[in-house]
Design goal:
The complex is a heterotrimer of chains A (493), B (397) and C (95). Chain A has 493 residues and is an alpha/beta fold. Chain A has 17 helices and 11 strands. Chain A has an 11-stranded mixed sheet with strand order 1-3-2-4-6-5-10-11-9-7-8, with helices on both faces. The longest helix of chain A has 24 residues. Chain B is globular, with a radius of gyration of 22 Å. Classes of the chains: A alpha/beta (493), B alpha+beta (397), C mainly alpha (95).
């Protein structure tokens, strides 16, 4: 059924609505492929076809906006009756009694859940090597990482195991794996999508978003996620000021695009990445956009601020994993050892590291020096973006300083691993929307281009991304073919 | 003000109270579970108040309304913008591993009630209930407890006073007034035995007539007015004896056992708590609008202090009588009912007085001005009636 | 810059049991990360307000309307050890 797999989700939905393709066939085709997954992308697949209530309960899939096109869901989203682990031992066997709003809305719009995808444990990681249930491999080169923490969601789509997926982004966890896997990844404005039912890592950063083959698919999912307005179950969720439009732009005339000096010229950015980035800037200009270099002061300190604030919030968010009400409970005698052993056994090394870091940053005597200062850096970065958007309409950077690196290459060096978030973290600190689109290849590996806009400028971002995507013409099919046993083409573009 | 004399040295007690009030809303503070009144364990819970992964708090509008009413009744200053904080610690009755509370910017501050300054009034959620379950072979023969989450998440208002109280009796009487006030507001059942009114006391003593505060201890587990007064009295005695023998009072938390009158240091829960407070990222700030405050103000009934003034003014009752009748709402209600049935004020008030308990302490007097906390910008010490009604900070509303 | 005893203290606050090897590794790793983070100590941030909330909403409140609670069995369904009355744990007093 290769034909089906070559369809974008939007195209597949059109065919279902036109009666040329049945939603059941589509689901089965992908179910079969997902079951044959050898890249570690999936943690859980349902038995058989969608359970009752998984599709559009109001009618036929053909009538639903998303056409019954099945969706891979990062295992960070609680789904009632479905094992949900956040890729952690501490939640092994946990079955939530409720479903995340984002998943409910997408199912109601006609995107039934295909299965749960692998991820870095509790969304902490940039390579999907921190899963308690095995790493995920990049279909472009199976010795390399797909990026993280939404590695499973990205690989499911890149390898043609799912038509589209949702992941979460805290410091880059949608955008960076999308970039490393040659896909589109959108992190919405903070608050645009409900976090209810999303297992929390860092509450003031976490956002749900699509990882898809192209910009139109991303727009479709984003629209379905937001069309019902804010979620009363999430006090930090907001109504979008305008409805999501399906992008149609083919040119960028009149668009002022700012290149962030601190992030795009940094030494940490690999030469191959810089080459693709510069080539993409040329395309922007060819399409009529005006490119200028801008400064985003303090953005070079984004990582430092992020690695105080996110772990601090995480240290509190993960305190509930204590062996009392759900999840793992270790053998223990007294209450203290119940807590300590459950958490000692249940959490992986990266999670422990971040809990320790966060606890330390909040602890008595250190709050002002770390947490307090990091919150101020956060303000400065938000102000820097606001100032930038007085001059330009969009801000661009490479998505990731490097292409996909090898499995095991950075696992002994946390700081090197954290560097993967260098370009994505400032946007997260400011709560702004950003998209990564595949812009080219370096040594055969995909390179992403990140576009950031002001709060709630998703339509502008999607429009620009759509135009650029057309001009770039990135071919993502090698990764899909690779998963069928053929070797991925690694010839230079 | 009481002075204790031991071997010619005079000490005065300094008492502050920390009160938790369960609100009579229909649902919990952060989720839609109905409040529980003796239901079967764990039948009033949901993923949110059980602290399941991925859940988020949704603040109860009525709880905020009640908290606004309380602050108005206690003549507090409104924070134009207050936020919630996470108070982090591990305990089985705390499902998230943190309590959502308020820390450095509480909803209300700088209040006053009958000579006692209110330091702060804020909102938070109640913990669950730990029930001792006897030994369990499953936990290697250790003692087991079971947790009932019905209560967990109930809205609480915490009221903290300045150390303006000078005796156990005064503390008891003032707490009765607070209770009457809150009952009149209709915001809580304020029943100490049932746990909808809980009171801890901070107690210290100092040489009489001095201004510096001594080391204070915190007393817990006094679930009736009588036990509160007894516990405070016992602690004052304990501290007096320490000072008398030239010892030093250690700052600690003590558990009062009314059955044997003992004060035991609470196992310090491993270490002095480092609560690692930080702003709650799952909630947005509270900036009460004019409408919200006005709605709360309009809902205020005639409060005991105003009622006492009215009794004095309209019925020419003596201040002591007026206060007694107003501050003990059952007496006041009896009195007004009798009045309505006919007759002048003398007989009903006499009858009401006859129903009053025998040992009524002297009416609340102004607490000794504390030098450690600035008075609320007033030159004279707080006194019962002279304080004018003050509207909350108007700049933000 | 973060020594063994501090690691143990923080681990206790976080209720994490670390073996001897983990404690040592953690001290090294955290020190390295903190060194990097230390850079923000050099910035001049005195006049800057901390960001405690990213969204600019205020007063997001829920109507005081009861919603169905979970039936008892479902509430206890995930419990590692469910007793007659509820979630069983070793008594804190026994710790």
């Amino acid at each position: 059924m290769t034909d089906v797999v070559e369809l974008t989700a939007a195209r597949a939905a059109e065919l279902v609505r036109a009666g040329e393709l049945s939603a059941e066939e589509l689901f089965s085709a992908y179910r079969e492929r997902a079951a044959a997954d050898e890249l570690g992308a999936f943690l859980w697949l349902p038995e058989g076809s969608p359970a009752p209530g998984d599709g559009d309960s109001a009618g036929r899939p053909a009538d639903a906006p998303l056409g019954g096109v099945p969706l891979a869901v990062k295992d960070i989203f609680c789904v009632e009756g479905t094992p949900t682990t956040a890729a952690s031992r501490i939640l092994e066997g946990y079955v939530p009694p409720y479903t995340a709003t984002a998943v409910e809305r997408l199912a109601a719009a006609g995107a039934p859940m295909l299965g749960k995808t692998n991820m870095d444990e509790f969304a902490m990681g940039s390579s999907n090597e921190n899963s308690a249930f095995g790493p995920v491999r990049n279909p472009w080169d199976s010795e390399r990482v797909p990026g993280g923490s939404s590695g499973g969601s990205a690989v499911a789509v890149a390898a043609g195991l799912a038509p589209w997926s949702i992941g979460t982004d805290t410091g880059g966890s949608i955008r960076q794996p999308a970039a490393l896997c040659g896909l589109v990844g959108l992190k919405p404005t903070y608050g645009a999508v409900s976090r209810y039912g999303m297992i929390a890592f860092a509450s003031s950063f976490d956002q749900c978003g699509p990882i898809t083959r192209d910009v139109t698919d991303a727009a479709l999912l984003f629209r379905a996620l937001t069309r019902d307005g804010r979620d009363p179950c999430d006090a930090t969720s907001i109504d979008l000021p305008e409805p999501v439009e399906l992008p149609a732009a083919e040119r960028l005339d009149g668009l002022r695009v700012g290149v962030v000096r601190e992030l795009s010229e940094a030494e940490a950015i690999e030469p191959g990445v810089k080459d693709v980035f510069r080539a993409t800037l040329s395309r922007v200009e060819e399409l009529g956009g005006a490119v200028e270099e801008i400064s985003l002061p303090h953005s070079e300190h984004g990582l430092s601020a992020y690695y105080v604030l996110a772990p601090a919030e995480a240290s509190a968010n993960l305190a509930r994993y204590d062996g009392v009400r759900f999840g793992l409970r270790a053998e223990s005698g007294d209450l203290l050892s119940l807590y300590e052993r459950t958490r000692g056994e249940g959490f992986g090394p990266e999670v422990k590291r971040r809990i320790m870091l966060g606890t330390y940053a909040l602890s008595s005597g250190y709050y002002e020096a770390y947490y307090g200062r990091a919150q101020r850096v956060r303000t400065k970065i938000a102000e820097a973006f606001a100032a930038a958007f007085e001059r330009v309409d969009l801000v661009v950077t490479p998505t990731s300083p490097s292409a996909a690196f090898r499995l095991g290459e950075r696992t002994d060096d946390p700081l090197a691993m954290y560097m993967a978030d260098y370009c994505t973290v400032p946007t997260s600190l400011a709560g702004l929307p950003a998209i990564s689109i595949p812009a080219g290849r370096s040594d055969g590996l995909p390179i992403g281009f990140q576009i950031t806009g002001p709060a709630f400028s998703e339509n502008r971002i999607l429009g620009a991304a759509h135009a650029l995507e057309r001009a770039i013409g990135f071919d993502s099919s090698p990764a899909r073919r690779a998963s069928e046993g053929a070797r991925a083409e690694v010839a230079a573009p | 003000m009481t002075t204790i004399t031991v071997a010619e040295r005079h000490y005065e007690p300094v008492i502050g109270l920390e009160i938790h009030v369960q609100l009579r809303t229909r649902t919990k503070m952060f989720c839609g579970c109905a409040l529980s009144f003796g239901e079967e364990p764990n039948t009033r819970t949901c993923p949110v108040c059980l602290g399941h992964p991925g859940t988020l708090p949704a603040p109860n509008a009525e709880a905020i309304n009640f908290a606004l009413m309380i602050g108005l009744a206690l003549e507090c200053r409104l924070a134009p913008r207050s936020i919630f904080h996470r108070k982090n610690y591990f305990y089985p009755d705390l499902p998230k591993g943190y309590q959502i509370s308020q820390y450095d910017i509480p909803l209300w501050s700088h209040g006053w009630l009958d000579g006692v300054r209110i330091h702060r009034v804020h909102l938070e959620e109640d913990a669950a209930k730990l029930v001792h379950a006897g030994t369990s072979g499953r936990i290697h023969g250790a003692e087991a407890s079971e947790v009932d989450f019905n209560r967990g998440g109930t809205p609480l208002v915490e009221i903290v006073t300045e150390p303006d109280l000078g005796s156990p009796e005064q503390a008891g009487e003032w707490l009765r007034l607070l209770r009457a006030t809150l009952k009149r507001l209709g915001v809580s059942d304020v029943n100490m035995e049932e746990g909808s009114l809980r009171c801890d006391a901070n107690v210290s003593i100092r040489p009489a007539g001095t201004a510096d505060l001594g080391t204070k201890t915190e007393l817990k587990n006094m679930n009736s007015f009588r036990f509160l007064e007894r516990g405070i009295a016992a602690e004052i005695q304990r501290q007096t004896e320490i000072l008398h023998h030239d010892g030093a009072v250690v700052q600690e938390t003590l558990h009062y056992d009314p059955a044997i009158g003992s004060l035991t240091p609470l196992r310090s829960k491993e270490e002095a708590h480092d609560y690692r407070y930080f702003p709650e990222p799952d909630l947005v700030p509270l900036a009460p609008t004019e409408e919200m405050v006005e709605r709360a103000r309009v809902a205020l009934p005639e409060l005991p202090a105003a009622r006492a003034e009215r009794f004095e003014r309209e019925l020419a009752l003596a201040p002591e009588t007026a206060q007694l009748l107003a501050f003990r709402s059952e007496l006041g209600n009896y009195f007004e009912a009798a009045l309505a049935a006919g007759g002048d004020s003398a007989a009903p008030s006499g009858a009401a007085m006859a129903r009053a308990p025998r040992s009524i302490p002297a009416p609340s007097q102004a607490g000794s001005p504390s030098s450690s906390s600035a008075a609320w910008g007033k030159a004279t010490p707080p006194s019962r009636r002279s304080r004018p009604r003050r509207s909350p900070s108007s700049s933000a509303c | 810059m973060i020594g063994r005893s501090q690691v143990l203290h923080v681990a206790r606050l976080a209720r994490l049991e670390l073996d001897a090897g983990e404690v040592e590794r953690m001290a090294g790793e955290l020190s390295g990360i903190l060194d990097h983070i230390e850079r923000i100590a050099e910035l001049d941030l005195d006049e800057v307000e901390p960001t405690s909330h990213v969204v600019t909403l205020e007063n997001v409140l829920r109507a005081d309307e009861p919603r169905a609670s979970l039936p008892r069995e479902r509430a206890l369904a995930s419990a590692p050890d469910a007793g007659e009355l509820g979630f069983r744990v070793p008594s804190p007093a026994a710790a």
